[in-house]
Amino acid sequence: MKKVLLLAFLAVGMTAYAQEVDEKTVEIKYVEVNDGGIKLDEDNNWKMHLYVGVDIPVSAPDGVDFAPFRSWEIGLTVAQYEYTPKNSKTTLSAGIGVDWRNYTLSGHDKMFAKVNDVVGVFDRKGDISELASRISTCSLSLPLMVKQSFSKDFAVSLGAQFNWNFYSRLNNYYEEGDHEIDDQTKKIGERPITIDVLGMLHFADFAVYCKYSPMSVLKKDKGPDFKSLAVGIYF
């Protein structure tokens, strides 16, 4: 009889333990929001992400009008590490990647030009047509984020992205007679280091991001003083 009671207690104990483990497993799965990306390791701690957005230059001086839907941002986070403490709904992440942005003037009658080491906006010159004028930058990016999960399909992230802007240029594309011209100017006085404020809404398999750059794209007295707001999709 004692052996029967002992076995019964063991069975009840094993069942309770199994339920506890199962509940913990469910809870851990609950905090993992799959926001896309390419897994770089078996533990799903390292990922690669791609994002594409529309650049909306803001705070531009009078006479400098940009075309938001002709201005783009494309970025690749080559490696991002995510750490979630056990049974926590908060995830910390840090990454490294490359970010490319361009800012295109609206219309076809204005163009960027560098004169006396300063970038300005001038009227279209000569007998040219189909003018498109833009400033482009390329950066090494370091995003640092905090993500809070609310369900297995929804989370919110806030953080900052540090940028080392190692390359920039202005481009004037136009047609002159029967010739297509791509006039490029490099070393246009971009800020070498900038910091962005970054927020994301994570859903199943993707996220929507909004990024504001409170620092001007060009150095002071090197060209038009404008900042950048980008909105896009993060995979």
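That was protein one. Protein two is written in the same sequence-then-structure order:
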Amino acid sequence: MEKAKRILASVFAVCCFSMSATSQTRSNENYVMEKMTILVREDLDRKLLTVTRQHKQDMEMLTQRNETLNKSLDSIKNVCGQLQETQTKDRTTISDKIRKTDNAVASNQSTVERRTVWGRVIFITILLFLFAVFLYLTKRIKKGDSSIDEVRRAQKALQSAQAKMQEDSIKLDSQMLTLVQQQIANVPTTTNNNETDHSLALKVADEIVRIELNLSRMDASVKGYKQLSKAVERIKNNFMANGYEIIDMLGKPYNEGMKVVANFVPDDTLNEGEQIITGVTKPQINYNGRMIQSAQITVSQNI
């Protein structure tokens, strides 16, 4: 019994000591936590103060830059306003010049069209005359009533009519080139949108190719042939000086890689497999090395 009391006393002493130690430990832990909390708060306050100062400096710098940009923007607005006024004045001036030029071009084009119509009428009349002579000779030959002298006289008449037709054609083409040169000198090279106006250049190029095709079918001894050839050469040189290039295709071999619109006709006089460009309806036009009009051609072939 006495021994049991001793054991209970020992257990009670150990429990009291344990409770005392636990209380002391908890007190120390609370103290440490409070100290750590204070240190963390102080560190956060220092960092927050540093970040706040940095942000304040950044804001001041951005404010200065914004003021500088606003000044630059005001200067740019003033320059834009001046440019807009200048462009308005230039548009008015250019519009007046274009209006005057359009009137001059319209007058010249009307003259060219009238002369072109007359030229075509004369050309058709001569063709009809030649056709009538040909029919007459054919009938006479079939009937056996014509003599060699009559045939020769008819041939001379045909040759004379053909020479006359070629001379008249050369005269009309020369007059047309004169009007074309006047138009080129008067027509502006830009539109209202400051874009290059190629319309007249393309029309002139079509006429040049047509004239060259006619010259290729004439004899060089025809009156006015050399003068017309030189006039065509001058206009082509003028084209080159202004950045235009008329691609020469007449008489050249045709290949499938060409960017053209081709009309093929059979020709047994060519070598087998040969393809030659024998007609140019519209030429290929390049402006500053860039194609602005593709060619329309006639290709004779023996395939």
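The beta strands are 244-246, 260-266, 275-282, 285-287, 290-293, 295-301. Keep this in mind for the problem set.
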